Amino acid sequence: MMKDGTIHRRVLDYAYTDTATLYRDFHISEQGYTEKQVEESRTQYGSNILSGRASDTVLYRLRRAFVNPFAIILLILASISFVTDVLLASNFSRNMTTVIIILSMLLISGVVRFMQELRAKSVADHLTGMIASNILVRRNNKWVGLSSTELVVGDQVRLLAGDRVPADIRLTAADDLFVSQSVITGESAILEKNTDVLAQEKARSYGEYTNIAFMGSAVIGGTAEGVVLAVGKDTVYGGFSGTQSSEKNGFDQGAGSIAWVLIRFMTILIPVVFVACGITQGDWFSAFLFALSVAVGLTPEMLPMVINACLAKGSAIMGSKQTVVKNINAMQGFGGMDILCVDKTGTLTGDSLILEYYMDILGNESQAVLDLAYLNSLYHTGVSNHLDAAILKYQEMPGKDGHFQELEKMHPKLDELPFNHERKFASVLVKGKEKNLLIIKGSVDEVCRRCGFVEYKGNRNVMEEDGLASVHAVVDEMTEDGMKVLAVAYKELGQDYLDTKDEQNFVLLGYLAFFDAPKQTAAAAISKLQKLHVGIRVLTGDQESVAISICRRLGIDTAETLTGAQLENLSDDEAPIKIERTTVFSELSPKQKAQIVQTLQSNGHTVGFLGDGMNDLPAVVESDVGISVDTAAEAVREGADVILLKKDLNVLEEGIKEGRKAFANVSKYIRITASSNFGNIFSIVVASVFLPFFPMTSVQLLLLNLLYDMLCLVLPWDNVDEEICARPLEWSGRTLGRFMRFFGPISSFFDIITFSYLFFVLCPSVCGGSFAALAEGGQLRFIAVFQTGWFLESMWTQVLILHLLRTQKVPMLQSRPSRPVMVVTMLGILFFTILTFTPVGTLIGLTALPLSYFGFLVVIVLLYLLFVTLAKGRYLKKYHELL
What we know:
8-stranded mixed β-sheet
C-alpha cells in the first residue's frame, strides 16, 4: 500500500515533471551544489539519517541507563525512606544512611551502565564509519565520493551496479538501469528504470514510478544519475522503516524471556514476604519497605552491564581476528547458531574462476563461442561476477590484445537486458555487419529452451525434439567433475532495441566451462563447524551437479538435495520437512534463499547466512546473523550484522566460539545470581515467620546485592570449558526457573542452620542472654550480631558458589577460573569481611563478630559447597546441562 503523505506526495509529484523544472525548483546548476547550498538544504529538509539512527544519541543512552524498571524501584525505595527516615522522623532518630546508600546504588549502577553504553555507541559509530555507504555526488563542479549520510535534497548523484540507493532520487540519466525494490514493495521482480516523464496520474504503485529510484532499493545492473528529492525519514523507505523498528530480534526475545521469569518469581514472593513480615513484626509499613527491597534483591541489577561487557569483549576479540561486528547483539546469534547457510562460490571454492574450455555444441574448441561470450560479458552492466571476470581475462592473453579490441570496434553495444534469477541469462544487443546480433549467455537449460536452431562449423540446423538430451550428453560429464557450464546462443535482429519478447528462437552456438576449485581450508573448517554442532547448508544458484560435486569433495553430506524448481513444487506441509533434511540446495533464486532461511527459523533453528552477492541480500537480511565480506556488494554489506575482512569459514568458527563464551558467562551470572537471591529471599520468608526481627535490613540486603553484582562484572573475563562451547547455547529463560528452584532451596537450608546457630548459640553468648530476656539496648546488639552473621554467611556462600556452578566439572581441579575472577572474588570476600569491623559497617547496622563465629562459618560454607557439588551431579544426570 502506498503512503501519500505530504512529503511522499512531493517526491512522487516530480515523476510527472521534466528535469528542467526540477533543476529550477531546487536551484541546481551543472556544477552541483556549493557548500552554502548544502547547508541551506540540510537546514530546510534535514539530514540523510533515518529516525532510528538519529535517536541513538548520548542523551538517549543516558536516559536508557538510568530509566529502567530496576532504577525506578530503587528511586521509589529512596523516596519512601527519605519521607520516613528524614521528613517524618524526630531530630534524634533522623537518619540519611538508607537514602544515601540507595541513591549511591542507583548512581553507580547507572554510571557503569552508561559508560558501557557510551563505549558500545563509540564502537558502533566507528564500525559504521568503516563500512559506511559511499556515493558519488557532484559538488563544486566535480564528482566526489561522500558518505550517504552527507547527502542533501538537491544533490546530483551517480548510481552504479551493486549500490544501494541512498535517498529518493529523480533520475536524469539512465543506462540500462535495473533495480530491485523488494525492500519497499516486498516483490522480488527486477524493474527497469528510465528518465521518461510519466503521464499525469498514470502510476498507481511504487513499481510504476519508472523514473524514481527509491531509498533502500538495490541497483542490480546499469548506471544512472539523478537528483535527490528526499532524505532520511522523509523518504518512502524512511516512512516504512519507522513501523518496523519495534520488531524484536532474537536477542530481545531472549532477554524478555529471562525478565518474565524473574517477574513471575517477584510476583509470588513479594506478597508472601510482605504478609509474613507484617504479621510477625506488626509493622506493615516496614514490611512493605522490606518487600520492595526483596524485589530488588531478587533481580540481578547488573544484568545489562554484564551482558554488554560480555558482548563487547567478544566483539573486540572478533575485531582482532579480521571481523567487524556491526551489531553487538549479533554475538548472541553466533553463540546460538546451529545452522550456517553458505553460498558456494568464494566460500567453499576459490574467489576466482578459470575459463577452462570454450566449445562448440560437440565439445570442440571454438573461437566464435569465446568471441560472442566476450562481447556479452564486456557490455553486461549488471553486478560484477566471477564468470564475466574469467571471460574478460582472455583479453590479457598473449597475442589476443588486438583481436578483442577489433571485436569491440566491429560490434558496439546497442541495448541489453541484464541477468536476473528468473530468466537465468543475460542478453546483449550489439551492432552486426548486416543485422544486429542479440547474444545471450547463461544457464544451459534456460538458454537451450529458447533455442530453435543449432550451429556447427558454420552450418545451421533445426534443433531436434530431444535436443536438450543431446546437450546434456555433452555437458553433464563436465558438471559432474565440478565445472560450471554456461551456454552461448545468438540471433540476428533488425531493430536496435530489446524487449523480452525478442528472447526466443536463438541459435545455440556452444558452451563455456569454468573450473572453481574447492578451497584448501574449506574441508577442515567444515569439519570444525560440524564438531561444534553447526549444520552446514549450501544454498547456491549453480547447477545441481556442480554443487553436489564440490560438496562431495569437501565432505558435505549430499544424500538429500533440492533444486529451486523442486522447492517451488513442494506443498506447505512438505516444505518444512524436506528443507529440514536437505543439505544442498541448488539453482535457487534470491527469494528462495530467503524462504529456506525462514523455514529453518520456523523449525526452531538459529540460522546464520554467509553471502556476498546481490542474490544473497534477502537471505542475509532475513537470517538471525547476516554475514558478509568487505568485498561484497554495498547493499549486502549494509544488510549484514557481521563483516569478514577475510572470506574464510575458519573465521566463523572463531566467531561461534566467542559468541558461546560470551553467553556462557552471561548465563553463569544470571543463573547463579538469581538462584542465590531466590535462596536468600526464601530464607527471609522462613526467618520472618519465626524471628521477632528482620534477619537483614533492607539497606544491608541492597548493599550486599550491589557489592556482589559489582564483583560479577569480572565474569566476562572468565574461562569457559570447551564442553560448554561444543554446542549451541539457548538464550532464553526456559530453564532459568528450574535452575532457581533446584539450587535456591539448598542455600536456604544452610541459611536456616546459620539462623539457628546465631539465634540460639552465638547471639546469646555475645549479648549475655536470649533475645526475650534482654533489655532494649541488648536486643539491638542481639539484632546487629545476628544480621552481621547472616550478612557474612550469605556473602561468602554467594561469592564461592560462583566457582562451583561456573563449570560442570570439579572446580579448581578440572576447571580453573581465570586469574581476574579468582583475584576479584577472593579480594571481595576479604573486603566484605573487613567491612563489618569498620565504621562504615557500623553505619549500616553491622558489627564486629568474635573469632569463634568464623570457625563456624568456614565449616558451614564447606558443608554447603560439598552439598551443592553433590546436587550439581544429580542435576547434570537428570537434565544433562548446567548453563
